[in-house]
Amino acid sequence: QVQLKESGGGLVQAGGSLRLSCVGSGRTFSNYAMGWFRQAPGKEREFVAAINWSGSSTDYADSAKGRFTISRDGAKNTLYLQMNNLKPEDTAAYYCAADRVAFQIAAPKAYARFGSWGQGTQVTVSS
User: What confidence tens digit (pLDDT) does each residue in 80-105 have?
Assistant: First the structure.
């Protein structure tokens, strides 16, 4: 299993930007697709973005398209989520997650595909 730790959350005004990071350790980080999910109070955890193991394929929730960019740096074992033009409805705890299976070509979206999770980082967007 891979251990994941997120950072980069904080308080930002609407229209601002944040970059989240997720550092992985343990199993070979670069062999696995990765994803970002978020969970607001009283709501279910929802998919935000994912990237396949090689970085050649990405997928986004409709709410993230055009504003968020997922990327990864294999040499640093780090996953990123660049978030621009933030809105109050983006307020949530953000979690990174690693795929259960290595070398999957497509970027996964389903919650059940991910077997390792970080503890989350809080993003708060004020209006």
Answer: 999 999 999 999 999 999 999 999 88
